[in-house]
Write a structure and sequence with these properties.
This is Thioesterase. By secondary structure, the protein is α/β, with parallel strands linked by helices. It contains 9 helices and 7 strands. The chain has helices spanning about 40-45, 70-80, 95-110, 140-150, 155-160, 160-180, 205-210, 230-235, 235-245; strands spanning about 10, 25, 50-55, 90-95, 120, 195-200, 220-225. The protein starts with 10 loop residues before the first strand and ends with a helix.
Length: about 250
């Protein structure tokens, strides 16, 4: 892996793109890290300038306290993105990352200068839909079973007690952040919103993903793929092709 070039602790830039390339900021899922998007950077660069957000409490930020308040997390990410706003920012988030990306988009829209250029929300229901989320209240064994159900974490890692001891605190904090998140009335976004979802996702139905439509005054579309919560790893070529096509226009 090449050494990331980024802005402080928050932003990872695994590949360098050209000065005119559209800039895509990627937000990880609960328990995820910036390196989840290394394949995205590898595939899209140099046509797209891919930045990945690194939340505290994982990988090289393991010693930092993870956030349990999603809005405070979005505040910090927005501040960290300030040096990268010399060109419009396209935002992509999966699962919890979709909501963090949405909250960052709201903040960017309020700041002087260009607002978000587009928002891609993957594997997450619209913010105004309701489900009771109690995953953060589970004990460790039940939390691990939840991870296995979503099939987003290597089974070998989940069987390693030392690795589990390292990842569980950040994972539990992330689940608390998204589980206690409550949407507040906010202006609709002025940028296009694209929702992506797996047709067998236990965490969001296509109808719930469709609810993102009400959060933009611009274009909206929904893409449904075969698969579960981590459909995007199985259908990575199709997802990357969609992003590349959209971002070059």
């Amino acid at each position: 892996m090449s050494t990331p070039v980024g802005s402080g602790a928050w932003i990872r830039r695994y590949r360098t793109a050209g000065p005119e390339a559209p800039r895509l900021v990627c937000f990880p899922h609960a328990g995820g890290s910036a390196s989840f998007y290394l394949p995205t950077a590898t595939a899209l660069t140099p046509d797209v300038d891919v930045l990945a957000v690194q939340y505290p409490g994982r990988q090289d930020r393991m010693g930092e306290q993870p956030f349990t308040d999603l809005r405070l997390l979005a505040d910090q990410v927005t501040e960290a993105l300030a040096p990268w706003r010399d060109r419009p920012l396209h935002l992509f988030g999966h699962s919890m990352g979709a909501v963090v990306a949405y909250e960052v988009a709201l903040r960017l829209q309020e700041l002087p200068g260009p607002g978000p250029a587009s928002l891609y929300v993957s594997g997450r229901r619209g913010p105004t839909t309701r489900r009771t989320e109690t995953v953060h209240l589970l004990d460790d064994a039940a939390l691990i079973r939840e991870l296995k159900t979503l099939a987003g974490t290597d089974a070998a890692l989940l069987a390693d007690d030392d690795i589990l001891a390292m990842i569980l605190p950040a994972l539990r904090a992330d689940y608390r952040a998204i589980g206690t998140y409550d949407h507040r009335p906010a202006p609709r976004l002025a940028c296009p919103v694209t929702a992506l979802v797996g047709d067998a996702d236990p965490r969001v139905t296509p109808a719930e993903a469709e609810a993102w439509r009400q959060h933009t005054d611009h274009d909206f579309d929904l893409h449904v793929f075969e698969g579960g919560h981590f459909y995007l790893t199985e259908h990575q070529p199709a997802v990357l092709a969609l992003l590349q096509e959209r971002l070059k226009t």
